[in-house]
């Protein structure tokens, strides 16, 4: 196993004290080596049994029981972690939170952000071992709500700066230390909701531990839940608007990206991303092809072909889901909704989102 500066320090019993500031980012998996103890401040089950959580509106969908927490439908098993994240997260100024609604480019954004931010420590064009060639992107960038749900904040603290972490929460559910401004930076990626729901349907059907057989998940039922605003993490239009408004108000703290723009000109999106994270590409790097190297390393074809991202490499656990690694790399295209929706379904979804976004300055058109 590649021994990072953090892992070497952890072997001496005081990881975070020995890691120089600015030596990151490093993969979360390389920190999560069993040497950093879990926090034991409060059992998470207490939050589930509290009057606050017990009183929340709830509904059952094909994926999980959902609770309506602060205006957002959350899987029940997420709620303790969200509460702890809101209460206990201490951002660093150079932290970067990567956010998205599910199946809107999350995995691609993780890879691009890590490759761009860590390019000096891990040159993407080098023939040697790169973390993205040996680890799944979800092993590199931590899903922060689950870190707090498991009581593993000490592992976040052990990461050298800058830290990358991901979330599917809307901006309004992020900790006040983040949303108040100045806490850290946030990058959000959105996607045409029609493509999102198609991708989500395929993704969930590949997952295990659903209340019913995953292959029996109805596309119409998931489609209706998104249109009604009752899907997990929904309403989806409120999700995207929360980040759009934050990006308009604080463009220095929140970067708003579109999946379709990432596809049209990945290189330009990588430049924007790197500059926003405080690690812009120099003229010498541009001339040497550093941007193109990041784009190629993180390309859909390359990522899908890596052994670490195939089924035989294992699965990714997330709450009550066990997800085959290749489920994160299905097609990576825009417009696949046309193969799954009738024109009437597409018009219905477009109309709902158009009405909900009216007057906000944002649209998917």
TrEMBL record:
Any GO MF annotation of the entry: transferase activity
InterPro entries associated with the record: P-loop_NTPase, Sulfotransferase_dom
Presence of the UniProt keyword Glycosyltransferase in the record: no
One Pfam family per UniProt: Sulfotransfer_1
Location of the Sulfotransferase domain: 93-360
Keywords: Transferase
Extent of Basic and acidic residues compositional bias: 38-49
Ranges for region Disordered: 29-49
SUPFAM superfamilies: P-loop containing nucleoside triphosphate hydrolases
Keyword Protease: no
Entry EC no(s): 2.8.2.-
Family: Belongs to the sulfotransferase 1 family.
Protein name: Sulfotransferase
């Amino acid at each position: 196993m590649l021994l990072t500066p953090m892992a070497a320090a952890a072997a001496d019993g005081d990881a975070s004290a020995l890691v120089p500031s600015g030596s990151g980012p490093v993969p979360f998996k390389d920190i999560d080596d069993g040497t950093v103890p879990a926090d034991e401040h409060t059992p998470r089950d207490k939050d589930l049994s509290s009057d606050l959580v017990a009183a929340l509106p709830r509904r059952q969908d094909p994926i999980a029981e959902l609770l309506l927490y602060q205006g957002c439908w959350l899987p029940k098993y997420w709620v303790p972690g969200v509460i702890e994240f809101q209460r206990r997260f201490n951002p660093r100024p150079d932290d970067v939170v990567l956010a998205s609604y599910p199946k809107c480019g999350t995995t691609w954004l993780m890879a691009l952000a890590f490759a761009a931010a860590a390019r000096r420590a891990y040159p993407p064009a080098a023939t040697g071992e790169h973390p993205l060639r040996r680890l799944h992107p979800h092993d590199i960038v931590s899903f922060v709500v689950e870190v707090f749900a498991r009581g593993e904040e000490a592992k976040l603290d052990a990461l050298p700066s800058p830290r990358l972490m991901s979330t599917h929460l809307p901006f309004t559910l992020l900790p006040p230390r983040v949303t108040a401004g100045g806490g850290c930076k946030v990058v959000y990626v959105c996607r045409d909701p029609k493509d999102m729901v198609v991708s989500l349907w395929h993704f969930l059907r590949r997952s295990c531990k659903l209340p019913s057989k995953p292959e029996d998940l109805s596309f119409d039922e998931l489609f209706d839940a998104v249109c009604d605003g009752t899907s997990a993490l929904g309403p989806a239009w409120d999700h995207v608007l929360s980040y759009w408004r934050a990006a308009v108000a604080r463009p220095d703290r929140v970067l708003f990206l579109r999946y379709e723009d990432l596809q049209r000109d990945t290189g330009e999106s990588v430049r924007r991303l790197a500059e926003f994270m405080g690690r812009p590409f120099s003229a010498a790097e541009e001339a040497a092809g550093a941007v193109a190297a990041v784009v190629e390393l993180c390309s859909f074809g390359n990522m899908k072909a890596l052994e670490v991202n195939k089924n035989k490499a294992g699965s990714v656990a997330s709450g009550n889901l066990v997800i085959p690694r290749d489920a994160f790399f299905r097609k990576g295209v825009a417009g696949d909704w046309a193969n799954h929706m009738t024109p009437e379904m597409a018009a219905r979804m477009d109309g709902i989102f158009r009405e909900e976004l009216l007057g906000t300055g944002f649209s998917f058109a």
